[in-house]
Specification:
Elements lengths: L2 H23 L5 H17 L14 E4 L5 H10 L6 H4 L30 H20 L11 E5 L1 H5 L1 H13 L4 E7 L2 E2 L2 E2 L8 H8 L2 E6 L3 H13 L5 E6 L22 H10 L12 H7 L1 H23 L1 H12 L20 E2 H12 L6 E5 L3 H4 L18 E3 L4 H14 L3 E7 L3 H14 L4 E5 L17 H6 L5 E3 L4 H13 L5 E4 L4 E2 L15 E4 L8 E5 L4 H13 L4 E5 L3 H5 L3 H7 L7 E4 L8 H4 L4 E3 L10 H7 L4 H15 L2
Parallel strand pairs: 1-2, 2-3, 3-7, 6-7, 9-10, 9-11, 11-12, 12-14, 13-14, 17-18, 17-19, 19-20
Antiparallel strand pairs: 4-5, 8-15, 16-18
Helix pairs in contact: 1-2, 1-3, 1-11, 2-3, 2-9, 5-7, 5-16, 7-16, 12-13, 14-19, 16-17, 20-25
């Protein structure tokens, strides 16, 4: 068999596996794998450095299928090149408990680098991975030892380029000159509605040229052209690259090629036979893999072992010459925090005066940054307001990839997904900040971070109407409740500077999922009860009378804890035994043993008042049927924050009144 005929056989194996996988499931998207198979084949057999027997090899090239609807392309490649993904799993595509769900899911299938499907997310994740690679290479590599030195590749679709997040991420990648980022644009001119001319007619490549990308346009079915384009992209060391590959969706299908009919549904039995005939496919059986093609693909196993062995040799040599470098990288890649870092966490005293929790967060960051060298992050053009800037360090930019401060620009969605990519790459602890009201722009990335258990840290300041004069457009009312609705997302809304310190400790130690910190613009008093603050458990007793069953329990989060503390004093003066519970995190409290939860909120005490400057949704779980919630069931207004709190009932007097009413109700 000639090399050319073997190449064609291998490419058609990719196509027929995708066709059969979708057909058996009677669900899926066969058109993309059929169209982009030539490009994927060249990349995976000639350029992609990976080790199928060790999918987590740190210096592997990253491959992202941002067009996640074409997941059968990735599943087929993983099986063919020797990953632990048996053919039986392809036959279970989109079925319960299989390793081949409808879109790639990180942490489920070996070799899948990120969860994709919502278009544009993989595009932005790749930018984050390239950033992490550049940072680690700049900070840890030595001239004679390149320990971190790899590319990030992705296949992106028309849909990816239409979504706004790709504009944000592409603009930032071009600005940062991320030369080891190479994307293949599957330019097949077809979307679900039909021709892309219906809604997508700008010159996409001129757009990327304007962003500062290296741009090429090729025939995506010309494998020699693909090879040369990748080489040219690798040579463009100071620009990210995009290669527009003109392809035909559903390539080879006599009746569905170049139609939306090949996009989101099986070809159908008759069309499958016709298409395989068009490929010259002689086997009648489904899921047939020619032995010659399989042997060719499986060469990846030996190549991968050799690549990793060569890297291990460099690693060992570097360990001898620069043991501190290898030690730091090992620690970073494992997610382990440096020994003794907690000693740098600051504490605050009441006599220091009131302090906004955003300001306290900034002090925490700057105190711990020298002790956690892989803690990097920034803000969506709000660093002075979010207090995210690390004062002793430069910015990450072209020529200074060792910088630890990131200027993400006004790109909340792009920033959030880029943080996910940085964390997925490994070796860094990324954080990013904006205002809480703009969490709406970040929500898709937050959802995927929670779904994929990505340890990224999201800082949202100006967390309530307490920001004051900016008015209802900037005052979050429903955002906190909306974030609490996302499974596996840990949210912490600290009540003072010391709780903020402990919230950061929780965020940094949590390595199996994202954490959100909600912080105030307004100054808050510092409590002198740090020793009682069990933030890691989500809720704790801040003030108590000593009675096993108090008359009323005041529950609050964040800035409203101060109201509860002041109301406690007023109630005490009236002979009412109150308890104040600070509840910075519903999620952490919910995960505690029932015994602890009942200790904090005894079931026997039905008189409960919750206080939070947002919608009340969800608080009924904690206050019970006889409890009360002081909340805000409308949008805010523009005025000084103290005026707003007074008009909306967030006053000590109203808390006391509600407490007394609730006690009366509970006794009936």
């Amino acid at each position: 068999m000639t090399a050319q005929s073997l190449d064609q056989l291998a490419v058609n194996t990719i196509r027929t596996l995708a066709i059969d996988t979708v057909q058996k499931a009677n669900s899926g998207h066969p058109g993309l794998p059929m169209g982009i198979a030539d490009v994927a084949y060249v990349l995976w057999t000639q350029f992609l450095r990976h080790n199928p027997r060790n999918p987590d090899w740190p210096n592997r090239d990253r491959f992202i299928l941002s067009a996640g609807h074409g997941s059968t392309l990735l599943y087929g490649l993983l099986h063919l090149t020797g990953y632990d993904l048996p053919l039986e799993q392809l036959k279970q595509f989109r079925q319960w408990d299989s390793l081949t769900p409808g879109h790639p899911e990180y942490g489920l299938t070996p070799g899948v680098e990120t969860t994709t499907g919502p278009l544009g997310q993989g595009f932005a994740n790749g930018v984050g991975m390239a950033i992490a690679e550049a940072f680690l290479a700049e900070t840890l590599n030595r001239p004679e030892y390149k320990i971190i030195d790899h590319y990030t590749y992705a296949i992106v679709s028309d849909g990816d380029l239409m979504e706004g997040i790709s504009h944000e991420a592409a603009s930032l990648a071009g600005h940062m000159k991320l030369g080891k980022l190479i994307y293949f644009y599957d330019d097949n001119h077809i979307s679900i509605d039909g021709s892309t001319d219906l809604a997508f007619t700008e010159d996409r490549m001129k757009r990327f040229e304007a962003y500062g990308w290296h741009v090429q346009q090729i025939d995506g079915h010309n494998r020699a052209a693909v090879t040369e384009a990748i080489k040219a992209a690798q040579a463009a060391v100071d620009k990210p690259s995009i290669i527009a590959c003109r392809t035909h969706i559903g390539y080879g299908s006599p009746h569905k090629q170049d139609t939306s009919g090949a996009h989101g549904s099986p070809l159908g039995p008759d069309e499958v036979k016709l298409t395989k005939a068009a490929y010259g496919w002689e086997a009648d059986e489904d899921f047939f893999i020619p032995p010659a093609a399989l042997a060719h693909f499986r060469e990846a196993v030996e190549r991968g072992a050799q690549w990793e062995a060569a890297w291990q040799s460099r690693w060992q040599a570097c360990a001898q010459a620069h043991p501190e470098v290898v030690r730091q990288l090992q620690q970073a890649l494992s997610g382990e925090l440096p020994a003794g870092w907690e000693a740098a966490l600051p504490t605050f005293a009441p006599e220091d005066g009131p302090l906004a929790t955003r300001a306290a967060s900034g002090r925490v960051l700057n105190a711990i940054a020298p002790h956690i060298p892989t803690l990097i992050g920034g803000s969506a053009d709000l660093a002075p307001s979010n207090n995210t800037f690390l004062k002793a360090y430069p910015a990450f930019a072209n020529g200074s990839y060792a910088g630890r401060n990131f200027h993400f620009g006004v790109r909340e969605h792009g920033m959030s997904s880029i943080l996910n990519g940085m964390a997925l790459h490994g070796g860094v602890i990324p954080y990013g900040g904006t205002f809480l009201v703009f969490a709406d722009y970040s929500r898709p990335a937050l959802r995927l971070a929670a779904m994929s258990h990505i340890p990224a840290i999201f800082i949202f300041t100006h967390d309530s109407i307490g920001l004051g004069e900016d008015g209802p457009t900037h005052q979050p009312v429903e955002q906190l409740a909306a974030l609490r609705a996302i499974p596996h997302l840990i949210i912490l809304r600290p009540a003072d500077a010391n709780e903020t310190t402990l919230a950061w400790k929780v965020a940094l130690e949590k390595r199996d999922g994202p954490v959100v910190l909600l912080l105030t613009r307004q100054k808050l008093p510092v409590f002198s009860l740090l020793q009682k603050a069990d933030v890691a458990k989500g809720a704790y007793i801040l003030l108590d009378t000593g009675k096993v069953y108090p008359d009323v329990i005041l529950i609050a989060s964040g800035s409203e804890v101060t109201l509860a503390v002041d109301a406690y004093e007023r109630l005490s003066e009236q002979g009412i035994a109150a308890r104040v519970v600070s509840m910075p995190s519903w999620e952490l409290f919910r995960s505690q043993p029932e015994g602890y939860r009942n200790k904090i909120l005894p079931p026997a005490v039905s008189a409960r008042v919750a206080i939070e400057a947002g919608v009340s949704m969800g608080w009924e779980r904690w206050v019970g049927p006889k409890g009360s919630v002081i909340s805000l069931e409308r949008f805010g207004a523009s005025a000084p924050y103290k005026t707003l709190y007074r008009h909306f009932g967030f006053t000590v007097e109203n808390v006391v009144l509600r407490a007394l009413k609730t006690i009366d109700i509970s006794r009936k």
